[in-house]
Amino acid sequence: MTLTACGIRPTPVLTGAEAPTVSSHEVVVYLVTPERDGLTRRTRTYTGLVDITTGTNLLLAGLTDEEKKLGLVSEVPTTSARAVSVLNLVVLPEEVAQQLSSKWGIFQVYCTARASKANVAGVTMPDDFCP
Question: From the CB of residue 68, how many other CB atoms can be counted at a distance below 10 Å?
Answer without folding.
Answer: 12
